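Can't paste images in this forum, so I'm doing it all in text. The chain is below; anyone willing to post the predicted structure tokens underneath?
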Amino acid sequence: MMTPKELLLETLKRDGKPDRLIRQYEPFVPIMNDPLQKYTRGNRKRGMTSVDKWGTQILFPEDAPGPMPHVTDENKVCPDITCWRDTVKVPDLVANCSEGWEECQASAAAVDHDQYLTMGFMGTGIFEQCHYLMGFEDTLVNLLLEPDDMHDLVDAIAEYRFQYAKLLVDNLKPDVILSHDDWGAKDSLFMKPDVWREYFKEHYKRIYGYMKEHGVIVMHHADSFCEPIVEDMVEIGVDIWQGVLPQNDIPKLQKQLDGRMALMGGLEASVVDRADSTEEEIRADVRRACDAYAPGGHFIPCITYGLKGTIFPHSDPIIDDEIARYNKEHYGIG
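Text version of the structure:
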């Protein structure tokens, strides 16, 4: 029986032969106590409102999977993209996060590296940071109507993002980095593919290229419809697309990708993660995903959220148990 680490590495090989399906985040040990996390997200607490280092108001309701920006006409950091340098102050990560890595390094060293992979975390991607500063509507309009200033702002955010990745890679040396940026809704991208390519593709190729040069597995979270740019995701270096929604044609993507990128997700959160989700409903949706996507290979059944766990605690153990039942039935291993 493969260890969780071996199982993940085998799942990522184009010709790999994993001996069962991975149970969600089973192979990964998130290291969440690094200086970057503490500096950029340390004041985010469930049930509280906070302000981040960029000046954006952050809401974190009790019943939400994670913190979200609350941008209004009155509080937006960047009310006018043509004057963004006057209002947007990019946090200095090098000045504030170059020291104090001993705690997270100790956490990583304590992991059983024969069994598991250490995972660094990078929330709030380049596109997300844009709408954190000015809201969705202004972001999408400005991408089209104010390309010069938007390119300059995106360039500044991307450099910040690169420095984040470099500090994380150089100091934590994780096996995997989970990097967030949601590029679409449930059934479409937020923008035309060519607009995404113009603004974001090369920046991500640089960021993820640095990770891969240092032997880091790139896991990109986007619980979105990303079919139109799936080849681009491979090109920028994504090894695992985490959060793939079932609204994407996953079997078609598996054939198209042919093992060049693993797909992690496939569960319908609105079914499996409600206060009143029944065990029968949860098991049925997990079984649907396993039956539909496991035959195509390079698939990890998982909740589509960008970190381990469900909002309603009763759901997650049932998801894991149903995957284990599937494994027992199909591979003889629970």
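The mean pLDDT is 96. The radius of gyration is 20 Å.
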